[in-house]
């Protein structure tokens, strides 16, 4: 005979003592194609109700063998591949790649080239942080904030387009120089950007920094302590938000960074909110660097001289001097090129995401024998299970967004 | 040229005290030390305890087609793989590169995950792309290539365009499926 339920417990009988506790965990596949991952990566989440018990990150969906390609393309050709690594800030990758190549060759850049590269690297940092913070806002429900950020990215795209003709995949640097010089129009556009951008930054901070919903969703979520950050190899804003005062622009000043005044932005909380704050403040510091640099761009050539035999000479030099003609011929021939030492170097720059370095082995050819890329995203993505354990499913996007994982750079 | 990181002479002296004379070289202000294959973990543990708290990168170079001894050093002569451990100190900003050379067949080195958690995925990537085993690694699965992939594509004898599906993936017979 059927007994009518008299209490809620009867509808939900006690669980069998023989069942193991993990039998009741949900497994949820997050990605590889999910709008909130922003890129192609996969997370296998173990959930108990809404709480994440464990997470298993999977990568490789976008693996396209960039390091293998780097062994077959010449040092100048490979810059097009670096564009596609962290496609949020391709200029920073261009600068990092040729910084590594020039370290291997022992090339000294011209002052003008150093300053222009510094300016574009900082513009790239601003555009990367805008997208990263914008996406954190978007994922936690602040859509307007994202649009404010993206509008300014559009302005930076416009500057890059005026500079080198490409908005997105810039391929702007060359061994020993740049593909083209900066024109007065670009200088004017950067000046305008420097003037107008702080207002947007203020607006953005007013919108989100003290917004109750945003603060509640990010403060105390995904906490990374200083010791863990160092031990797990975090760099860049993620490490600085945990109190690691490490910034290669200060610690190993490359390009023209030693000439400018700026501060390294740090926080101690190590949570998503701290990472957001560090990125917001870093944009202001980048703007400070650009302001100082754009008014003092040294005159002179952007490429190293003909005697270095690495950068193509100007047309004027090719047609009117014998050295220019010879140099142009040698660099254009496939079996001549420039000599690379039988040596190995590692050179890194402070990319928007962290330490982006290339370990290059040269074997005399004009392409690298080994072109290892040290991507910050891999080590940050490895942090993810550690950061998310114990938080809820809705925190996944906040943590993922604050780490700024770019799958193209992750998988290469 | 950037300002080179601070010198590591004190570290090299400490290493020489402990491990006898090691082969070192400097190029563009970067110091490299060749660790003996059998004592690599001991050496890295020593450095980790001496302030190199940040493991920047673990990677590898396959010297199959290389015409000269790697970096002009004796240590790597005749060995096919050269592992690269890039260490840094967050306190002093010193950097040190440690090289460990291993050879076929079955190249194996001890895992450094007990020293730096950062090594976990980096070593998985080296295993995936070069086929070097890390003894004692907690979770040595492939990182970027599919799990059932059969080759190690960054080795120099693996062609740029790959070898095709038939070679790269195991054949499953009707009986097995």
Would you mind describing this structure in some detail?
The complex is a heterodimer of chains A (412) and B (177). Chain A has 17 helices and eight strands. Helices cover 47% and strands 11% of the residues of chain A. Chain A has 412 residues and is mainly alpha-helical. In chain A, a hairpin with an 8-residue loop joins strand 7 and strand 8. In chain A, the strands form three sheets. Chain A has a three-stranded antiparallel beta sheet. In chain A, strands 6-7-8 form a three-stranded antiparallel beta sheet. By secondary structure, chain B is an alpha/beta fold. Chain B has one domain: NADH:ubiquinone oxidoreductase Nqo5 subunit (Beta Polymerase, domain 2). Chain B is 21% helix and 23% strand. Chain B contains four helices and seven strands; from the N terminus they run αββαββββαβα. In chain B, a hairpin with a 6-residue loop joins strand 4 and strand 5. The longest helix of chain B has 12 residues. The N and C termini of chain B lie far apart (58 Å). In chain B, 40% of the residues are buried. The interface between A and B is large, with 53 and 45 residues.
Q: What brief labels describe this structure?
A:
heterodimer, A: 412 residues, mainly alpha, Cytochrome-c3 Hydrogenase, chain B, 3-stranded antiparallel beta sheet, 47% helix, globular, B: 177 residues, alpha/beta, Beta Polymerase, domain 2, 5-stranded mixed beta sheet, elongated
Radius of gyration of chain A: 25 Å
Radius of gyration of chain B: 18 Å
Taken in chain order, the helices and strands of chain A follow as: HEEEHHHHHEEHHHHHHHHEEEHHH
Ends apart, CA distance between termini of chain A: 65 Å
| Alpha-beta classification of chain B | alpha/beta
Can you describe this structure in just a few lines?
The complex is a heterodimer of chains A (412) and B (177). With 412 residues, chain A is mainly alpha-helical.
